[in-house]
Amino acid sequence: MTKDRPRAKPTQQVDASQAKKIKSEAQLAVPETQPDWRAETLDRMRKLILQADPEMIEEQKWKKPSNAMTGVPVWSHDGIVCTGETYQNVVKLTFAKGASLPDPAKLFNSSLEGNTRRAIDIKEGESVDARAFQALVKAAVAFNTSPKATAKVKPAARAKGKAPKSGAQPGKLQKNEQGVVLLSGGNPQIAKGDGDAPVQAYIAAMPGWKRDLGKRLDAIIEQNVPGVLKAVRWNSPFYGVEGKGWFVSFHVLTRYVKVTFFAGMSLRPIPPGGTEKSKEARWIDIYEDDQFDEAQMKTWMRQAAALPGWIP
């Protein structure tokens, strides 16, 4: 972390009337709408976070009078990755599991006493090593999606007077008939791996009707992108082209399967899912009763494979 060197101030002395005039002119020269340095800093770090992980979920939480009811920005991927808060003198980025993350660049400079969280305090004029920061974000996502992290669950609902769901055992993650752990939304927990085998393991573990959809998607990609590369990353199948990066991935959620094109804004027509915050990525959510447009999916796959992809 580096800090801009302060500029030398002029030593010329002025009387009270001159000082008042100078102050008035300075106020007129700076529009009231000039962005606050804290907002600019937080926005800059937000962009780095979303670039580091296109699957990141961004939300505003914990709205209360102390933050003008605007809430706190929270970035999550299978659990909270980090939060962003602005104070009078610093912008604070707190990593929920920071104490467990490697930090060779020593970006963490706050909340160093605890056993769980770590934070980065950024003061006015300071900059953060973008590459090192994005490495922290990726490490946090990897930690959240690791078997060790996902094995930790909340106490059983029975402790709060609620009956657990049928077939569920208190304190244990749900497993399918193959013994594969199903994470939030029924998404299979498959270890990171390259090649067709881990992708097929993921598809075989997809619950119910989603398994057949996974097979269809996989077949469409293979048929339309010769030599496609496959891998499982962050408990999702990824498909890519040598030298270009990943162009598509899909992920199981409770009621649908999300198919994400990392360069979706360049596809024609543009897939329907996406927001301003998702940058170039666009997606389509496929529900059980949807009319699956296979011809359109084939066209998108061919287009996406021809474009520069996402390289983590």
From TrEMBL:
Residues 38-141, 210-304 form the YdhG-like domain. This is YdhG-like domain-containing protein. Transmembrane segments: none annotated. It comes from Pirellula staleyi (strain ATCC 27377 / DSM 6068 / ICPB 4128) (Pirella staleyi). Residues 1-34, 153-174 are annotated as: Disordered. Coiled coil: none annotated.
